[in-house]
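Archive maintenance. Older records in this collection stored only the sequence; we are now back-filling the structure field for every entry so that each record is complete. The fields below show one back-filled record exactly as it appears after the update. Entries are processed alphabetically, and Molybdopterin molybdenumtransferase is next in the queue.

ARCHIVE ENTRY
Title: Molybdopterin molybdenumtransferase
Organism field: Micromonospora krabiensis
Length field: 418
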Amino acid sequence: MSTKTAPATGRAAAPPIGWDEARSRVHAAGLAAALPVAARPLADTDGHTLAAPLTTRTDLPAFPTSSVDGWAVRGAGPWRVVGRVLAGGTPPPLTEDGTTVEIATGAMVPEGATAVLRVEESERTTDDRVTGTPRSTPEWRKPGEEAYAGEELLPAGTPIDPAVIGLAASCGLDTLPVRRAPRAALLVFGDELLTAGPPGAGRVRDALGPSVPAWLRRYGCAVGADDVTGPVVDTLPAHVDALRAALDTADLVCTTGGTMHGPVDHLHPALAALDADYVVNTVAVRPGFPMLVARVTGADGRARFVAGLPGNPQSAIVALVSLVAPLVAGLQGRSLPALPEVTLGEAVPGRGDFTHLALVRVDEVDGTAHPVRHVGSAMLRGLARAAGFAVIRPGTTGEPGARVPLVPLPLLAGERAR
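Back-filled structure field:
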């Protein structure tokens, strides 16, 4: 797919592009600017992304290991006890039929052993021999049973979680090559915004300044309190200065408001002043169509990105799930996020030639998706009860029983199923 883009000019945008194309385009732009690779100790890799395939240094297991407590025996019984082997030791071989060593779970099976007899299925004779009948299936793990040395276990682009860290350790690895988390910043635009207290006298409370950083962190970005600026004064010089300062340290700068072309919407002229080029400029999606992603090339030649989120709060979140999530995945070297499907439990209207992202909750019993109330572009009440956005394709409506894609909100496991 081509990632050729147009320069930011400050003029009215071209017709909006399709929602699926927009996702693909920003993901490709992110991949093209994927963040540098560094080796990190295993304990410091949680939440990062594998920058190279995970391969094992040895067979797994590296040697035959007993899967039970019992007796490693050679030949037919009864067996004479000639020793003991515990986990972490290297036993001498069993060289004579009729001999056995006591063995612990996880211990190395001695060379020459023909079976392992479970301790609970064995008996000791009066002359201190061991009797019993080993099971027909081996009671030890063979070398390479899980993986062979050099085998690729996980591809590059895999998100690293505790399970991946444990697997890497079992492979004998001490470090992993990873892509660092994208550094993000947020610029809040709008003189009408209050940062404390209740709204009134023509001014509204800023809901995005406190919440967007949390969304960004759940998508894997690094963003702290010092990375949030605003409200930025509604002048072009102030917007240019704020963007330039944020781009000095951030890989991704999100802005709120100013994505249209009104009298105090300065984002497009500011991007033009920074010689930015658009990756996406408006998307055929409702709500939130005046969203954008632009690319700015730094003095070091590396691309940084500006994601323009609409000022209406729910529209801003639509922009986050539509453009920022795939962009961040690309920067991390991850695949374009796949969308699960849900069954609609109620009808969801279409939006003509636009994709409709409809907030839904998902019933935890039958798994059906149901639209929530209070879903205006300026509202957040519905979002606070939702599991994600049902995707209603252009020219269609969501009928009860239909299977449709779901854009899940980046929530903790088990949340918002109600």
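Update note: The two ends are 39 Å apart (CA to CA). The CA atoms of residues 62 and 143 lie 5 Å apart.
Entry marked complete.
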